[in-house]
Amino acid sequence: MKKISILDIYKQNNHLNKLITINGWIRNNRFSKIGISFLTVYDGSSTSTMQVIAKKILCNYFTEIVKLTIGCSVLISGYLKLSKGNLQTYEIHAIHIKVLGWIDNPDIYPMSAKQHSIEYIRSYCHLRPRTNLIGVISRIRNVVFQSLNQFLNKFGYLWVSTPIITSIDTEGSGSMFRVSILDNNNANNQINCIRKKNEFFKKKVFLTVSGQLTLESYACALSKVYSFGPTFRAENSNTKKHLTEFWMLEVEKSFSDINDISVFAEQLLKNSIVDVLNNCMSELLFLQKKVDNTIIHRLNKFLRINFIHVEYTDIIDILLKNKNIFDEDIFWGKDLSSKQEKYLVDNHFKSSVIIRNYPKKLKAFYMRLNDDNNTVAAFDIIIPRVGEIIGGSEREDRIDYLDHRMQEIGLNNKNYDWYKDLRRYGTVPHAGFGLGLERLILFITGINNIREVIPFPRTVGHADF
């Protein structure tokens, strides 16, 4: 007897009138006085559920089946039939039901059948995947993850696992988490002093804010590479778009400049949207009903309209001409606010925007200095609802320029000596970018808070589970 998923039943369409077995969890149990129970079962493979008809002739009908509550796990064997009801296509006429796991106390089960707020289910991150909303988001996240990997593989990019523990500050911002085996609250200072002399890595180390610098070393040997993994920012930001732990896709390409890498970034973004539209339509229809009634139209529009390339200087001119809209200072050399980004994509351009050539003081030391000596060959991609989703640049491949930039911002040259070796030994022009996975999922799903698009959110004051 073949064990299949609910998704298989709807995709393969060749199981009708056959004996099948499914596993899943109870979402609802209605039973009649004449001895028939109607079980609604889900298994997480799709938005679809399966209605199961269980009759009192089953040996455990009165001892177990009528006692099933939401959340109980079951194994069900039976014949797949076309449903006579209007709410589902198929139903299973059970010949055997085995209860695998009970809910200890249904009255206090946190994921009960009643409507719960997003904030409520967030406090039960270990149980919230059982809700329709988080299940839908999780399946979309998986498709996006696979899509990004497949797209890069198609174009010959090699995956490189860059280190999570690092001794360098990629962004030069200092907002990093320290990694240590020391107990700084230990009252015995003498023990602490001994430990400090024998620090595990013999130096201060941190959780990485970016794998870019180490990834560059592989780009300067393998030409086209990428990394994909968790990164950490110790910024005290508690907005709906910030996490302290998040997933970053980072791409590096040798013999490349700002023009081709920014175009490639746009192609990668749009390809992921195409894959979601092709593979997650039932999830999108669920979100269209529950979260964003424009979601399918919005994603298709995103694909149709080419991104607009514009200089940072021109952006400032546009904002100055409309300064009456904003309650903040606008001048050349200042970073864009989220309100300004929103105005640019929603009102002025009515399109996603690639902003290029930022003032050097706004960007990291490794970005290539332009001939004007005031700007760097950097770009940000700004999209609706989210704002900045990709940041990238040409990398500074001239060692004397790199040295000067590091001195300007006060970095310790010794810590980056290996990085300068890439410029000493066969330097090449190269470029790259970073994409925040959660921000992409935020845009696709239309969810308002980034905490819902990562399984276990880490934010200021919150590191549960």
Can you characterise this structure?
The structure is a single chain. The chain has 465 residues and is of the alpha+beta class. The chain folds into two domains: 6-109, Nucleic acid-binding proteins (OB fold (Dihydrolipoamide Acetyltransferase, E2P), Beta Barrel), CATH 2.40.50; 130-452, BirA Bifunctional Protein, domain 2 (2-Layer Sandwich), CATH 3.30.930. The chain contains 13 helices and 16 strands. It has helices at residues 6-12, 118-122, 132-154, 189-197, 212-222, 258-279, 281-290, 295-304, 312-321, 338-348, 399-409, 417-424, 437-445, and strands at 19-31, 36-42, 50-55, 73-82, 90-101, 158-159, 165-166, 178-179, 205-207, 224-232, 245-254, 308-311, 353-359, 375-383, 387-394, 430-436. An eight-stranded mixed beta sheet has the order 6-10-11-16-15-14-13-12. A hairpin with a 3-residue loop joins β14 (375-383) and β15 (387-394). α3 (132-154) packs across α6 (258-279) and α3 crosses α7 (281-290). The two termini are 38 Å apart. It catalyses: tRNA(Asn) + L-asparagine + ATP = L-asparaginyl-tRNA(Asn) + AMP + diphosphate + H(+). Its EC number is 6.1.1.22. Keywords: Aminoacyl-tRNA synthetase, ATP-binding, Cytoplasm, Ligase, Nucleotide-binding, Protein biosynthesis.
